[in-house]
Amino acid sequence: MDMGILIDCQAIPKAYSGKKLFDELCLTIEEENRIGLIGPNGSGKSTLLRILAGLMDTDEGEIVTRKGMRVSAAFQEADKELPADQSVQSFLQGAVEHLPWQDYEKETAVDQAIKRFGFKDREKLAGELSGGWRKRLSLAAAIAARPDLLILDEPTNHLDL
Q1: pLDDT tens-place string over residues 110-140
Q2: β-strand partners of 139
Q3: Fewer CB atoms inside 10 Å of the end CB: C or N, the chain?
Q4: Spatial separation of the C-alpha atoms in residues 108 and 105, rounded to whole Å
C-alpha cells in the first residue's frame, strides 16, 4: 500500500433489512484528505463512517488500512454515552492512555485538549455538562489522540458556540 494511503475500500456493499445503503462502493482516503459526506437521512453516511472507523463490518468487499494507523471517531450520539460520573480530565486521559506515548506526552495532549476546547473546570463530571459541552468533550477526546484518520459524524450538532 502506498504510504500516502490511509485506507482503501474496494467493492463494499452494505444493506439493512434488505434495503441497500450502498453497493460496490470504492473509496481511497489519503493523508491530508478532507472529505465530507452529504446525503439524506438514512442513506448510510453514519454506517459508512462506522465501517471506516472499524466499528462495523461490511457485507462483502475489501478494506485495507495502513499498518499502525490510528483512527479516532466522534459520532453524533457519542456525547449521550459519556460516563456521567467521570470528570472531563479523566475522560480525556482515557482517550490517550492506550497510546504508546511517554506520560508527559499524554498529560500534554490532555492539557491542550482542555484548553483548546474551552473547559474551565477539568474536574467537572460529564453528567453535569450540557449536551453541547458533552459533544465538545467527545470531540476533544477524538482529537487529543492525534489520529492519522479523524472521523466526525455531524460534529457541530448540539454545540454551544
Answers
A1: 999 999 999 999 999 999 999 889 999 999 9
A2: none
A3: C
A4: 5
Q: How far apart are CA 109 and CA 136, in angstroms?
A: 15
Cell numbers that stand for 96 in this block: 490517550
Closest CA to 43 of 25, 26, 21: 21
- For the chain, domains (ranges, CATH) are 5-69 (3.40.50.300), 73-152 (no CATH)
Rg (CA), the chain: 17
Q: Identify the CA nearest to 4 among candidates 143, 148, 150, 151.
A: 148
Cα gap 39→132, rounded to integer Å: 24
pTM recorded for the entire structure: 0.87
DSSP string, 106-128: HHHHHHHHHHHTT-S-TT-BGGG
Nearest to 115 by CA among 156, 82, 144, 155: 144
Q: How many residues does the chain have?
A: 161
Question: 151 phi and psi, to 5 degrees?
Answer: -110, 120
